[in-house]
Fold this sequence. Notes:
87% of the residues lie in helices and 0% in strands. By secondary structure, it is mainly α. Helix 4 packs antiparallel against helix 7 and helix 8 packs antiparallel against helix 9 (181-207). The protein is globular. The two termini are 18 Å apart.
Amino acid sequence: MNKSILELAIPNIISNVTVPLLGMVDLALMGHLGSAVYIGAIGLGSVIFNVLYLSLGFLRMGTTGFTAQAFGRNDKQEIAHGLYRPLLIAGALALLLITLQIPIEKVSFYLLDGSAEVKSLAREYFYIRIFAAPATLSLMALMGWFVGMQNTRIPMYLSIFINVLNIAFNLFFVKVMDMNVAGVAWGTLLAQYGGLAFGLVLLFINYRTSFLPLKRKVLFQTDLLKRFFKVNSDILIRSIALILTLSFFTSESAGLGNNILAINSMMLQYFFVFSYFMDGFAYAGEALIGKFTGSNDRHKIRKTIHYLFLWGFGLSLPFMLTYGLFHSDLIRLVTDNTELIALALKYKWWMILIPISTFAAFIWDGIYIGATASAAMRNTMLIASVFVFLPVWYFGLDFWNNHGLWLAFHLFMISRGLLMSLFARKALNI
């Protein structure tokens, strides 16, 4: 079981870690331009796309769960249509996002807090990056399908390719073309389309025998569509609640000033570093739990859960140690602003606690997705958001300012892990 988990997790870890590394390079490029407004603009602009794309994360998560279960049943027809269906939906949703870009921008910046200069730069970023939507959403569907097929190597190759390409474009536009926030946006857009082209080539080379003829009757089969949209609507609600909570965190950070926004944006990058690392094991859980759910092997489902949590807890400890011993060095990687570096020390312990307070939620996410236990995922997220994060934020911000904001964030993540533990036996039928 450990071998199976690691064979799936390690490629995912490698590919996932490249994502926050890209974010850190973006922040470092902006952080060395001499003003906190550039960091804040990237942080604020990225919030909008986090809301959009992570809200639509069902294109990856739902695809993984359904494909893994079809793989476990050896249902070749549903394996093929399990790719066609989300790709079709990805194209339709991307067209909708581009069509509605102006109202999306207006509503987003009405809701988000920040200085006029930060918002102006963030708008520029938004109107460039929005045109990457077709590539971004199609890649989500492709990645989910590959993981469902128990193949995490291709997503690794894809992620490395996209993020190396993105970093190269960003360095070119910012350092050579002397652009700032707009250069980062153009780099992201071009890298996404380059990644989609590479992904389609890998799909054809490795899985051309899986391209069964598209059957409209199967594609639009009523019972399959109902289940597809039921599961994905639950994941959509769950994802919206998660991203709105994280976005609210960023917006409230902006309300505390440009320096606090910059500090919290930098610390969140190390939350994402750990989350993407831990998601490697969550993705392994998606693939294995989905396969064993499809083959109805309850013993292996329980065994997989046991080993996933051993890995999750064990790996959270060295991350805590690293964040504690090298806190200032990690902040200096992102900025050389001495005022920001000094201010970050005030919030050191919140960064150190990130791994231990979050790992359980990440592991359970993968397990629930593989089992397509979407209703329980949705319910636990809503409870944690509405009844834990918001009350703690409301009372904590007045008394402890940014410390109160971080307290709300940590209790939100802890409660998610505990609630999914309580719901697991019934939700997963184990």
